[in-house]
Specification:
single chain; 468 residues; Uridine Diphospho-n-acetylenolpyruvylglucosamine Reductase, domain 3; Alpha-Beta Plaits; globular; binds flavin-adenine dinucleotide; binds D-malate; binds zinc ion; flavoprotein
């Protein structure tokens, strides 16, 4: 008889304590299906009190906790290690929208709310919650906050951190910190909220949040522009910023090879141009005046860029369906890459002005060391954030290539470091990058992170093996 699990059953109900291998399977494997962890149980609490009770039981029994939202994370943060000692604490049942305040422009939500449901709830009240990413149909706001997710709206609205005013957290001791304040100004000591955001479940469990709402734009327009080089894409970014200001809400780069991969695995999704171009930019404008106003701005930008030959071709979506079709191409790159087989992913940022140089220099270094490799480069160009991914040469077995992952990472991340960039722009460190980060963060920064971890989670039960 496992006393610890019996106490968990008593605390949250036996049906919410999963121990059966088959039922646990989807909680233990990461989204890319590259790694499967082990756990003694998956616990599915239904309230903050139940989360706190479970944490206290884990403390008493010395059981490590792996918090999990939608399990869409890409850095092995949401799956437990191989010891089998941990429990996965899934927030999936905590999916209530608690309150919407249309004057304060805030929404208070349970951490397990699916992002798309939050977007929809905002839309129904004529508001916008601007966090947007390919996994929005299954990721949760608790996971978004814990990874400080970025996505496609950062250029205008900021990362998840900028979208959050307050948090409710269960501490590693099983206390509840109610910081659900909807305040835009609050300078009353250390900012605990900002400490928990991006902590990847290593400092406590986020159970609720107050998030910011924005006016819903009157018109949203999408265009796809084709160009020869990433330098031209950067030139278009400068033009778009000058001419469209805050109306510019999306600026996503995709190489021709990304589009080829998407068309291969999703044949209905292809670029609407008669010929291929090396690079493409997906642009989004969100206007608070009218569709006519936005269209005039977009057409002027595109006509000017065509005339000065910054871009070679462009299409403007004429309907919501056409806009969706363009965004579908962008959002299916990750899926197409996964369908294609094993590859090495990077999520890097460098100062926007250096992106062109970073790509040229790093492409050349990689081509020299790994002849025939195929670059799958795309991402949030407007934020200086690239998904600089590497696929094996066509004639090399993927497993042979994956054995050289460490070498590939070293070339890419050393280059990022030389360009004063970050080796994780938006996905976090998880278990995947926790060793590597030690090469790039200063000893002082690593020491301070360790001090914070020791102070808040002295037993190191919160998501061990991740981040630090
Ligand atoms: P999970 O994967 O379950 O967990 C992520 C991390 O947060 C883990 O460390 C976990 O322990 C911790 N955690 C989860 N919930 C809690 C909680 N309540 N309290 C404490 N810790 C918690 N990311 C981007 O930033 N930008 C993108 O554009 C983007 N696009 C994506 C597209 C696809 C197709 C996929 C599969 C992923 C994408 N991601 C992106 C990565 C991922 O979706 C995000 O990181 C997302 O925010 C994770 O949310 P989740 O609920 O799935 O969290
Ligand atoms: C994206 O921007 O699509 C994501 O961050 C996912 C990825 O890197 O594949
Ligand atoms: Zn991304």
């Amino acid at each position: 008889m496992n006393n610890f699990l019996d106490l968990c059953r008593e605390a949250i109900g036996a049906s919410h304590v999963i121990t059966n291998e088959a039922d646990m399977a989807s909680y233990l494997v990461d989204w890319r299906r590259r790694y499967t962890g082990r756990a003694q149980a998956v616990l599915r609490p239904g309230s903050v009190e139940e989360v706190a009770a479970l944490v206290r039981l884990c403390v008493d029994a010395g059981v490590p906790i792996c918090p999990q939202g939608g399990n869409t994370g890409l850095v092995l943060g949401s799956v437990p290690d191989l010891s089998g000692r941990a429990v996965v604490l899934s927030l999936g049942r905590m999916n209530r929208i608690r309150d919407i305040d249309l004057v304060n422009n805030t929404m208070t939500v349970d951490a397990g709310c699916i992002l798309a449901n939050i977007q929809q709830a905002a839309d129904e009240r004529d508001r916008l919650f601007p966090l947007s990413l390919g996994a929005e149909g299954s990721c949760t706001i608790g996971g978004n906050l814990s990874t400080n997710a970025g996505g496609t709206g950062v250029l205008r609205y900021g990362n998840t951190r900028e979208l959050c005013l307050g948090l409710e957290v269960v501490t590693p001791q099983g206390e509840v910190w109610n910081g659900l304040r909807g305040l835009r100004k609050d300078n009353t000591g250390y900012d605990l909220r900002d400490l928990y955001i991006g902590a990847e479940g290593t400092l406590g469990i986020i159970t609720g949040a107050v998030i910011k709402l924005f006016p819903r734009p009157k018109a949203t327009l999408t265009a796809l522009a084709a160009m020869q080089t990433t330098d031209a894409a950067l030139k278009l970014l400068t033009l778009a910023r000058q001419q469209c200001g805050a109306t510019l809400t999306g600026f996503e780069l995709m190489s021709q090879f990304c589009l080829e991969l998407v068309a291969k695995h999703y044949p209905q999704m292809h670029a609407p141009f008669p010929q291929p171009y090396p690079q493409y930019v997906l642009l989004e404008l969100s206007d608070s005046e009218s569709e006519e106003h936005a269209m005039a701005m977009l057409e002027s930008l595109i006509t000017g860029a065509l005339e000065e030959e910054t871009i070679q071709d462009a299409v403007v979506a004429g309907s919501i369906a056409q806009s969706r079709a363009l965004w579908d191409i962008r959002e299916h790159i990750t899926l197409a890459q996964a369908d294609e087989g094993k590859n090495i992913k990077h999520d890097v940022s460098v100062p926007i002005s250096r992106i062109g140089d970073f790509i040229h220099e790093t492409d050349a270094l990689l081509a020299d060391r790994f002849p025939g490799i195929r670059m799958v480069t795309f991402g949030h160009l407007g934020d200086g954030n690239l998904h600089y991914n590497v696929s094996p040469p066509v004639d090399m077995p993927a497993d042979d290539f994956m054995e050289r992952q460490h070498e590939v990472n070293q070339v890419v991340h050393d280059s990022v470091h030389r360009f004063h960039g970050s080796i994780s722009a938006e996905h976090g460190l998880g278990a995947l990058k926790r060793e590597e980060i030690k090469q790039y963060k200063s000893a002082v920064e690593l020491r301070l992170m360790g001090v914070i971890k020791d102070a808040l989670d002295p037993l190191h039960l919160m998501n061990p093996g991740k981040v630090l």
